[in-house]
Batch of 2 targets.
Target 1
Amino acid sequence: MSDSLSIQNLHASVDGNEILKGLSLEIPKGEVHAIMGPNGSGKSTLSKVLAGHEDYEVTEGTALMDGEDLLALEIDERSRAGFFLAFQYPHEIPGVSNANFLRAALQARLPKGEEIDAVGFYKEMYEKMDALSMDRKFTGRFVNDGFSGGEKKRNEILQMMMLEPKYAVLDETDSGLDIDALKIVAEGVNRMRSPERGFLVITHYQRLLDYIVPDVVHVMFDGQIVKTGDKSLALELEEKGYDWVTEELAVSA
Amino acid sequence: MSTPDSATLEAVNIDQDAGNFSYAEDYAHDAGYGLTEDTIDYISNVKGEAEWIREFRKKALKTFHDKPMPTNWASKDLENIIFQDIRYYLSKGQTPTRSWDEVPDDVKETFERLGIPEKERKFLAGVEAQFDSEAAYSNVKEELEKQGVIFVNSTEGLREHPELFRKWFGKVIPTGDNKFSALNSAVFSGGSFIYVPPGVKVAHPLQAYFRINAENFGQFERTLIIVDEGAEVTYMEGCTAPKFETATLHSAVVELVAMKDAKIQYITVQNWSNNVFNLVTKRGMAHENAEIRWIDCNIGSRLTMKYPGVIMKGRKARGEVISIALANDGQHQDTGAKMIHAADETTSNIVAKSISVGEGRSTYRGQVHIPKHLKGCKNNTECDALLINSNSRTDTYPAITVRGNQHATQHEASVSQVSEDQIFYMKQRGLSEGEAMSLSVNGFVNDLVREFPMEYSVELKRLIDMEMEGSVG
């Protein structure tokens, strides 16, 4: 299927250690998929490999975004092609204001010689900030510099809203968030849901999925997807714990 | 690191070549190659100088020959300057023009290609633009003349206003201060002479553009700015130069005198091409309650050695140096500041940021001197270095001499790197490697860039972008 983010038999290593061991996953446009899994199962590695982090080496497999070979593109090309990663630990950029950073990111998407319209840019940014309950002063603050955990995550969602990706991976966006911040972030994601966009929500806890209700839930273990189901799978996992999955795997093996 | 994308390469090629042009040399006055007493007689004759200036030059020449190269503490690269292969005086043979119409067309073309905006030319309070060694264009707005402000080139200043300028000429920076101040004193030509009468606050910055346009031609401008009691002025100096195959020497002397309660702000953006030796001596003298600020940015040149200084001679005088240095491949930015406290309750502040890229090298040298017999002096020194890759080199030599216990000094230094993860984060948002780098670097110097006037900060940002995009690979 070409209208999807399609990952087939993906193997990836870091420093010679294989972390992803033949992972396959297909996210059609318009759907929200969740990946749950215990620590160390390779969830964050998957997000970094898809984004193109140079520490990870893809040894086998494919990742196609609407039919385009994602792995053949540079990191920034993937972004401009419509791939977005909301980081678990967003980086600080001292001295660069949020407004300038966003503007540069949007500018990078325009053809050479074209300038973004400053008035329209601010209007749009303010609207989206309002939706995320962000103070206007935020535009002048340096990117993630001295931000609380909640502010950083909200900032990731704001960037996503501004860049309007085709596919977004949210890497443990719920970690470090209190319930109010979690609701705001989830609301931001829900506003973005559309038939034209696919989401992969990586989380350790079911809690986030109460607010971002997934169409499909995958369970990841030891570098592979080991179980796939609907949203009730998340509840079942929450109830029975990850041991349930690993025990089940042991039985079937 | 990945290879730059084609758009980056294209941008680099265009940008790097933008300053790469020169015109047929057509100089009415040329002192030839090398430096002897004859060279000095030639310069003095052409300029029709007073005898005391000729003597001043000849004495300086002797001092220059007597002084050793400062290679015991500075870069060995200085040994590559072949003094006999340099032309020490070139001139269009013109007297400074008063109106724009009188400016030769090829000079105008140079300004055009330097991108000096039309409206800026009209708006500026006065323009003293040096084309090679003589001012090609000199226009002081009427209102400034009415206020009694003098803004001329050094030749005219010494000829027409000796009573004003002779008193301070060579006093803040004596000929023998260093080998290159002696060289400048022997062969100086061009540069600005400014006098601001008591109480006059010059509303618009005075501006000068410098440019070298002859191969192997050393440029030795001499600037003296005297701001009388309670007066204020801002002076801006910006440099670009076309590229040549052999090294070019630039050695300026800039002296500032701020009388009681006066304020001087001297702003420089230095972007010489990467074969220029830029060996400059800049110092100001601040009398009682006066303030001198050097705002200095060095992006170009092969080797820059420049340590702007302030001698705080009167009580409550203030000195400040704000410095940005960017050293790319093949460049050495050896910059810093010199603060000499010579009266009670004087205050100095140094904020220096350097960026080293690739094989580029940055050195900070600071000297703060507070003697024992003084009271209530303060110094703050901050120097931060940013390294862009593992080959970069940065050195910090702060020398803070504080004697006595009635002073307050503070010193902070840091060295940091643009992390791979920070670049990864920015690239994930769609920025190319070059764009990510230049945004990071601009962020690093952001607080200092804001100290520059608007048009300079825009230009600076653009220069940094060009440098960073060219450095990715």
Target 2
Amino acid sequence: MARGGEKLTGAQALFRALELEGVDTVFGIPGGAILPAYDPLLESSIRHVLTRHEQGAGHAAEGYAHATGRVGVAMATSGPGGCNLVTPLADAMMDSIPLVAITGQVATAVVGNDAFQEAYMTGIAMPITKQTWMVTDANDVPRVVREAFHVASTGRPGPVLIDLPKDVLISDMRFEWQESVDLPGYRPTTRGSMKQVKAAVDLILRAERPVLYVGGGIVRSDASDELRRLAETGDLPVVTTLMGRGVFPDTHPLGLGMPGMHGNYTAVTAMQRADLLIAIGVRFDDRVTGNLAGFAPGAKVIHVDIDPAEIGKNRSVDVPIVGDARDVTAALARELAKLQEERGRPDHSAWLGTLRDWQERFPLRYRQEDGGPIKPQFVVERIYEATRGEATIVSGVGQHQMWASQFYRFTRPRQWINSGGLGTMGFAVPAALGAKVGRPDQRVVAIDGDGCFQMTAQELATSATESIPITVAILNNGYLGMVRQWQELFYGERYSQVHLTQDTPDFVKLAEAMGAVGLRAEDPGDVDAVLDKAMSITDRTVVIDFRVDPSENVFPMVPAGASNDDIILGPEGVRPVNDPAEAPVA
Amino acid sequence: MSLHTISVLVEDQPGVLTQVSSLFARRGFNIHSLAVGTTERPGLSRMTIVVEVTTKPLEQVTKQLNKLIHVIKVVELGETASVERELALVKVRTKPEQRFQVVELVEIFRGRIVDVAQATVTIEVSGPSAKIDALCELLEPYGLVEMVRTGRIALGRGERGIRDRDRLRAAKEPATA
């Protein structure tokens, strides 16, 4: 077929294709090999957010994708630029985030010659992406962009990488756009089998102690409404995993909150005692199941996932259903309603009564003394009040992440953005920036730790120069707190390389130097006033240094490798381990 | 642990061999042999992979293989339901007076002498892997100079080809419990 399209350069074709994909924002940093792509950017309708580090660009693109459900795009140059995207790509792979990374590459003539700023990006990214492409002919640019967005956003979403050698960006091509993609080996199943749906509903109708175990798959497929219909139709209590916080309202009577290593007693124990787990868009992660052999021993399992490889990977399944979570959840709700009309609605009042009793007897707890020090949980609760429960909350990884997930009450999907699978410290600030770009109508609050914050704090400058106002609440305990907690509990209080100090750096001055507003609270009595001040500022980024109690630990806790039955509710339940050989394996 | 033969139909794209082989490494499976070549269809290649695993991880690896964008189909070929062959070239040290004995052995195994030198002969032999193992064992006392094997290739028995087989679809879809 003769190419009859408009004559463009490879670089112009890239932006034309991105515009056709509906991209409105790209996060990135220019450099030598990607230079040609940054020139047509000046004529494009696409906004480019100039971050201070490529890792920041990658996490910002993830935050954008998390918050909007659209594909996030990050751009970097060859070599170090691409290498700095490795962590965000791995993060997006673990948390199924649609992300397209575009990297420059040295000219095809010198690929493989160890040229300046050359790295084998498609090879480096291969195990941490769904697919990579290196384009060697400029005419292929539109097709590869189309394929990349298709692969990133369909099936189980995930990251992809397009590597563009400099000569390909410069050379002339004929632009032709085709909506359809030809990938014979890639056909994700989206419609669940009706036979399996019926088998699942049959199990649901016979269950006495059912639990809906739902996670990130509900977010990715926008299935919250369908989930709510299913839960309410069958009177089914719901636990939401770390990746699924918000897909079912924490304020709903059937909402049990988060299960897992730091889940609340009721959510953890409901799964342990259940006779049926209806698992949708979850992957039986070790942080949820604890010791697999002791996990939910009496439960039959219905597992719904778009990725066949997740089904049966960790836990054997009674009714597997491969399909899109929304499609299957809707079918389950429909079929359940129909059969309940014929057979009557099962009475779960005894089970729900037990759960309510546990909720009353074993709530999440902490004690805030008037004279201080500030408890981190108290800060999260006050943030919840100050934002009227409406903010988008972004977190890093560690103690602050667990407290944020436990004590903020989430009511809508995409309200909670964090790094779950990879556990990437430093995720919060750049991801919050990306979330704010994607949802400028929302207040975006990063609840961060002092350790995490210092890994990517340079992106505060991005927020100032690009006018992306976010709120950053640092729960500053001066420690790599989760590691400190493990050393306290499992290494006989032998603290090794965890003390960062609360005073260095001075976060208020650092915020000011970065063009943000810096605030500090050192006494419980200051917390509300400082938050009010922060909430009154909407046009600039605000950083709040909350000096919190360094000795506070995250509870409940199921030590790694232990059974969920051995949940420790508070400090009084800890049996000290003084021999490091006995420490649980992380 | 047992040996399983997996046939993987792939698009002939750069990096696909790396993707497939690194998937085995990443999930901790030991590849016993791997043979790749073209097929009856331009643009498609076929890999025969012999892997040492137990059944449950094999199912996981099959599912993970199916997720690769350029993998079209994956089938496990059972021993009785398929024909399998391997080709070997074996260079054996032979004194002139021993050459007849070696030629006789090679004939029994329906192999061929493909090169003769002063003190060696090179043998071509094909068949199931066990047959090649057996011949090598018999040649061992003469002195093996060097040997190369292609790794196993296999096709399902009967009329249907890999692209018609339901088992493939089964692998793409959930395992029924």
